[in-house]
Specification:
Order of helices and strands: HHHH
Helix content: 55-70%
Radius of gyration: 11 Å
Shape: globular
Largest sheet: none
Distance between the termini: 11 Å
Length: about 70
């Protein structure tokens, strides 16, 4: 199963948006550079952030309980 980060990164690429656009649409209160690093898997993405990004991108995330995000 694909990780949350992989699922979000794929949806982000399909969107054609910039990181700044995704940040605005998601309503997250983080730095643009932090979001970029989270999408690349360089920083840990928490569940609330993942859900906000998924909502902005119009996708449903799939993961198994106990699986590392």
């Amino acid at each position: 199963m694909r990780s949350l980060t992989e699922q979000l990164c794929d949806a982000f690429k399909r969107s054609g948006w910039s990181v700044a656009e995704l940040l605005t649409k998601s309503g997250l209160d983080i730095e643009r550079s932090s979001l970029d690093r989270k999408l690349k898997g360089e920083l840990r993405l928490n569940v609330d952030e993942a859900q906000a990004l998924a909502n902005a991108l119009g996708v449903t995330l799939v993961w198994m309980p106990g699986e590392a995000a």
